[in-house]
Structure formats: C-alpha cells, structure tokens
Amino acid sequence: MLKQLKTWAKAIKRDVHALWLAAHDPRTPWYAKALALGIAAYALSPIDLIPDFIPVLGYVDDAILLPLAIMLAVRLVPAEVMAEHRATASLAVARPVSRTAAVFIVVVWVAASATLAWWFWPRRP
C-alpha cells in the first residue's frame, strides 16, 4: 500500500507540473487555463494558505482539497494536451516554483491580519 501511495504522489506532482505547462498552452480553453494556473501556482508555492501547524485544517488542504482540485483541472484540459504535457513533465529534472503565488499568500495573510487588528482594535466613543 505504501508503494501505491508513493506512486500516486509522484503522479500528482507530475500532473501539477503538466497543469503548469498546459496553462501556458494556446490549445487549452480559457477556463481550464485559469483553473490550471491557479491550482498549479498554489501547489508549487513554497507557502501554504493554511499552514500545516494548524491542527487538522493544515493537512486537509494538502491531503484532500488540493488533489481533488488537481483532478478537476486535469479533466478540464483536453486529453491530448494533457498527455503531451505529462510526458514533458515526466522528463523534467527540476520542477517549477511559484514565487508569485507565495507572495499572493503572504499578502492574503497580511490583509487578514490587518483586518482582524482593525476590527478588534479598541475604539474610543
């Protein structure tokens, strides 16, 4: 069972890279490009939206939500385009890293923190 899990994890990593490539392919429909780019950027980001140190929720996005989103995006990309990019991703030595998504996630956390601080900051009447 552990071998199957490792094989599945490798396939997911390959599919994330393939989605990144498919998002830049002109043969991919716009809605699939948008979803593939967003999911691939989040998956390739070195920072999680929900950090892993948060009990349960930290791993739910990595273990359940992200693989489901990846599978949805793979289904939206035309099969021949996905097959071509899967082959390219399998041969790739290095995987892309999305620093833009990391910056976006940091901005979301800063904005959420600022909003909470403003909301709970004591005000004088």
Radius of gyration: 18 Å
SSE run:
HHHHH
Q: In what range is the share of β-strand residues?
A: under 5%
State the low-pLDDT regions, or none.
none
Structural class: mainly alpha
Q: Quick check: average pLDDT? A: 84
DSSP summary: helix tally: 5
Query: Into which percent range does the helicity of residues fall?
Result: over 70%
Number of strands: 0
Shape summary: elongated
Q: Termini separation (Å)?
A: 63 Å
Task: Please outline the major beta sheet.
Answer: none
Describe the protein's architecture and organization.
- The structure is a single chain.
- This protein is mainly α and 125 residues long.
- It is built from 5 helices and no strands.
- The protein has helices at 2-23, 30-44, 57-76, 79-91, 99-120.
- Helix 1 (2-23) crosses helix 4.
- The termini are far apart.
Brief overview:
This protein is an all-alpha fold and 125 residues long.
Which structural traits does this protein have?
elongated; 125 residues; mainly alpha; 5 helices
Topology:
Layout lengths: L1 H22 L6 H15 L12 H20 L2 H13 L7 H22 L5
